[in-house]
Write a structure and sequence with these properties.
Elements: E1 3-11, H1 17-27, E2 31-43, E3 46-52, H2 55-66, E4 73-76, H3 82-94, E5 100-102, H4 120-127, E6 133-134, H5 138-145, H6 152-166, E7 169-172, E8 183-187, E9 190-194, H7 207-220, H8 225-241
Parallel strand pairs: 1-2, 1-4, 4-5, 5-6, 6-7
Antiparallel strand pairs: 2-3, 7-8, 8-9
Helix pairs in contact: 1-7, 2-3, 3-4, 5-6, 7-8
The structure holds adenosine-5'-triphosphate and 4-amino-5-hydroxymethyl-2-methylpyrimidine.
4-amino-5-hydroxymethyl-2-methylpyrimidine binds at residues 8-9, 11, 16-17, 40, 77-78, 105, 108-109, 114, 206, 208-209.
């Protein structure tokens, strides 16, 4: 069994963060482990509280995982502060972790800031250079590339710029402002588009967490980055297309959409 570690924040409503990651990793056939960076009190309408884990406790969680069940891939999501970013970077180097996927979480779907403004420098300095691939959405890619993104050409310019500065592959997701389902990757000097059919579903809470965990799971299983992204896109399209509708705001997806036949009675 391949193993995936998610280092991220908890989402009490279960649609994003650690909970989305664990569901996704399991649905993609891997064993899921977690190191929690923060508790968030949130639901489909918004975030009402955040309590960060201490750096010591985060380091202990990472030691506990790495010294026992070594992860084949890692997904890093919400990390709100510089101190925690530095703990993660140090542990990843210490244990020489492989297949690191960084979802550069900055603002939640509901509009809540999930990283301190002054931690973005540490994210750039410490985490991006050790990532195999990072998955910014358009607003995040604008911050990282220090440019405005208006169209698909700008998306290509941004991923190339970020990749050249930080030495990682960059997948910019189109789910915000430009198109909903087309993402672009810059990796090893090449540009690759991943075209997805836009699914008419307002329930997109946790799409970013889900995509990055699905990519990490596929890397753990030995797929190369291109195929890992294709498989991850197919998975998220299935989860969105299921059309589950929970909560009063932008609801979660059905991460277990392809397990439905096993529970046909309920
Ligand atoms: N309506 C949609 N139909 C099909 N695919 C979608 C749709 N919305 C988003 N996606 C896909 O979902 C994935 C995640 O993209 P998105 O831009 O929503 O992430 P994000 O903004 O980081 O998510 P989050 O809101 O959780 O932070 C991408 O592959 C994107 O193309
Ligand atoms: C804990 C957590 N991580 C990431 C996101 C981004 O969607 C969120 N809403 N909550």
């Amino acid at each position: 069994m391949k193993t995936v570690l998610t280092i991220a924040g908890s989402d009490s409503s279960g649609g994003a963060g650690i909970q989305a990651d664990i569901k996704t990793i399991m649905a993609n056939g891997c064993y899921a482990m977690s190191a929690i960076t923060a508790l968030t009190a949130q639901n489909t309408l918004g975030v009402t509280g955040i309590q960060e884990t201490t750096p010591e406790m985060l380091a202990l969680q990472l030691d506990a995982v790495f010294t026992d069940i070594r992860p084949d891939a890692i997904k890093i999501g919400m990390v709100a502060s510089e101190k925690l970013i530095r703990v993660i970077a140090d542990k990843i180097k210490e244990y020489q972790a492989e297949h690191v996927v960084v979802d550069t979480v900055m603002i939640s779907t509901s509009g809540h800031r999930l990283i301190d403004e002054d931690a973005i420098g540490a994210l750039k300095e410490c985490l991006l250079p050790i990532a195999e691939v990072i998955t910014p959405n358009i607003p995040e890619a604008e911050v990282l590339a220090e440019m405005t993104i208006r169209d698909e050409q700008d998306m290509v310019r941004a991923v190339e710029k970020i990749s050249k500065v930080y030495g990682c592959a960059v997948l910019c997701k189109g789910g915000h402002s430009i198109n909903d389902a087309n993402d672009v990757l810059y990796s090893d000097g090449k540009v690759n588009w991943y075209y997805g059919k836009r699914i008419d579903n307002p329930n997109t809470h946790g799409t970013g967490c889900t995509l990055s965990s699905a990519i990490a799971s596929n890397l753990a299983k030995g797929y190369k980055i291109d195929e890992a992204i294709r498989n991850a896109k197919d998975y998220i399209s299935g989860a969105l297309a299921d059309g589950m509708d929970l909560g009063h705001g932008s609801g979660p997806m059905n991460h277990g959409f392809d397990l439905k036949s096993r529970f046909a009675e309920s």
